[in-house]
Amino acid sequence: MVLGSTGVARRFGRRAAALALTTALAAALPGPVSSAAGAPDTPAHPTAYVDPLIGTTNGGNTYPGATLPYGMIAWSPTSTRGDQTSTGAANGYEYNATRLRGLSLTHVNGAGCNPGAAGDVPIMPFVGDVTSSPSADTTDSVYAANFSHADERAVPGRYSVGLDSGARADLAVSRRAGVADFTFPADKPANLLFRVSNSLNGSEDAHVEIDRAKRKVSGWVLTGAFCGRRANGGVNNRKSYYRLYFSASFDRAFSTTGTWKDRTLSPGTTSGGGGEGYATGADRAGRGSGGWVGFDTSSDNDVRMRLGISYVSRAGAEANLREEIAPRASVDQVAAAGTRAWDRELRSVRVGGGSTAQRTAFYTALYHSLMQPNLVSDTDGRYPGMDGKAHRVERGQGAQYSNFSGWDQYRAQIQLLALLKPRIAGDFAQSLYNFARQNGGVWDRWVHINGPTHVMTGDPTAATLATFYAMGVRNFDYRGAFDSLAHQATVPHPDGLSDAGCPGQCTGQRPNLAQYLTSHYAAQDVCHCWGGAAETLEDSVADDALGRWAKLLGLDEQAASFAERGGWWRNVFNPGATDGAGTTGYIQARNLDGSWVTPFSPGSDRGFAQGTSATYTWMVPQDVQGLAEAMGGRETAARRLDAFFHKPDGSWSVKGGDALRYDPTNEPGIHAPWLYNALGQPWKTQATVRQILDTVYGTGPAGLPGNDDLGTMSAWYVFSALGLYPQTPGSGNLLLGAPLFPYAVVDRPGGGDIVIDAPSADADHPYVSGVRLNGRTHDRSWTDARFLRGGGTLTFGLSPEPDTDWATAPGGLPR
Description:
The chain is an alpha+beta fold. 24% of the residues lie in helices and 21% in strands. It is an enzyme of class 3 (hydrolase).
């Protein structure tokens, strides 16, 4: 049954009867911890708590290899389950697949679309003679090797693995280059295979050059095709959009060389190439190219390699290596520099207290959150444009960044980036604007390197840049970017009438905009989109964010227009839609003639993208009060939200797998636990968030609930553990919850730090009993953008039992 408010308070709040109250309520709030007293137990080297193997199974799709913050290079294994055209999981690595066919130079963190993206140029240390084409080894039975996790070590900036063949690789990186030590058995042939064509998605073309005199191997791969294998529109993405160049030099001469193409092996040659195509299985098996170099290890079994990469040219790759890594730098030295770089980034948030497991989960989540965006510009500022030409960064821009999983990231990751690294956020905003100008003014919702992939739905870039501006990011051409995004949202583009790529990668960024502007919703039967109801909700969020941005810019007419459009979600809310059990009022797709798409079920995904009506009905973060009113009032909405997180017997349902309830593995509903704040029952946010933190996230390879989606799920954890969460895109407001740690400092570059002081924080005190902001009583469950600008101290009183009075006054609720 659905519990009433009194029953919910008991169920959310009652612990064992023997649990004693050890903290007084609001009247006894502690004062802030002064800097003189010292922060309790904040780590000087947070990298010690990072485990890159978290998320490498259970669908997390992270990778454990060597990378630096926002790095271009990400040197990590490509695993195999016996199919050379696939991997154990998306992005190249699956913890339970303990066989690998190479160590690839580029990766994307946590994206779906198995096999993911990138995974360019796997380099394989092979023990034995090369007697056949590695491309002919379609089941990875010969030119691959098993390994044990006991022989694997992953830390920020460094990765090493010992193979059952007797070979070992030890890798460390700068941002655009890397060094490696490969060791081989002294009594067996030793070779390095450069599988230049074998990117995760395949390739259109590839090339390798071996220079015996200079002891170099260089080449490139022409590839792309992110999500190109998906059944729902992926064929549209079976295309190339970037070329990855590499140049590797060695400390010793080659004893043998050779190349291969498809099934033909050419020993002694030094030049070759050829692509694999973008199919999979038998349609691609046996195709591809590469080269190998052999070494005499009879007296010295250690091979040292230095390597640079670039998306512009081989010369760029070599310059990146020269600029970033000293000529004789060892793996240890490069790794030590990488540790220092990661420590600087991770010290952006310094937490005190908590268990070792909590710190590990927290700092690994922060690590995953700050892995992207990723550099695509060389040290000289050149980068590949979306028009296929080389460009230079804009004046005042630090670097060009890419890899924008917009539909995912706009809900949490970009807010964390703006909070902690506003300069990077501004450069990223400028980067996306640069790409849009090179793409005929079209802002793509999922940008990979310089490719518009069109993946997912909605207009997440509008929400992203509006959020950056609201959170104080200014180092980008914000007026030019606003005008461009407003134009995209108001002037129909021919692509909006195309079904190319639909439903998963529809080309139009504002599908059938003319119809949308007339009907005020995306009609399911003519929308040229993934799902009309989802598209309407996504565009409403984006338009509301544009309206908030316009208001901050002083553009009152546009602000009013976009604010009105932010309310068009109401046109797909059907008050008569029912679950058949007495609950009415759901988001539902509509046809052009105004009729509702039937049959309807709240557990159906018809009209939605990667979610059901039960989940999407809550996706109105910009107007929670309006949504509650449409449902019959805040009390009714809160009871419905209770049922979203609980089974009929009252037990929790927050791990996914139920189409009618909360799914922590995907983005449309991840804000839902925080909606209770606006409904006047913030203690339920505190209990729900704590339940998710404790049971859905954790340590070990399965420590993420699903695709990390370029740091999005990790950013959710970071915010939630701090007791903060972004209220809605386009806003600088933060919702307040119960901190997981007794103490935290959030470093705000160019502004005042945010201090979170919650001395009673522990497993037995999950509820807020009161808050002080800079020493003054704060009776609201949110803060506004002024807090972000000026910083300050939030002091939390915490309790074992819910305080059903704090932050519940109707006039002080988030709006």
